[in-house]
# Entry
Amino acid sequence: MRIKEMADRTGVSERLLRYYEEQGLLTPARLPSGYRVYSDADVDTVRHIRTLLAAGLTTATIARVLPCVRDDGPGLAPVCPGLVAELRQERERIARAIEDLRASQGMLDTIIGAGPAGTATPTRQPVPEG
DNA sequence: GTTCTGACA
DNA sequence: TGTCAGAA
# Structure
């Protein structure tokens, strides 16, 4: 199928499909005209890309992870040996990013708290670890 | 008519 | 990511 049908089937814009290819996440064949040709399997791949993107992985990481996952109906299932370990590292990376954001939030709370009355933002409640 | 690449917001 | 231009 060509890009238009692919976009309709996946719900992902043509622009994004081209971007995924540029990032090495998808490698559709080409017609003599230069038009991209996607396979049915590519539809599942795009679904996996969306899932991994939602999980906070970068396109570079997804490119490495993609060939190591199996279609598990609704989601994905890890296949390669070192995959789970790498995903754990990604999780730590995200945890550190959250810490940094919390610190930034704290800084702003301090600044806001020093301003005019009634403009302070309530402190957030702690979130449970996963 | 549909898609491609490159560029800009 | 969306959108537009110019070419095929």
Summary: The mean pLDDT of chain A is 89.
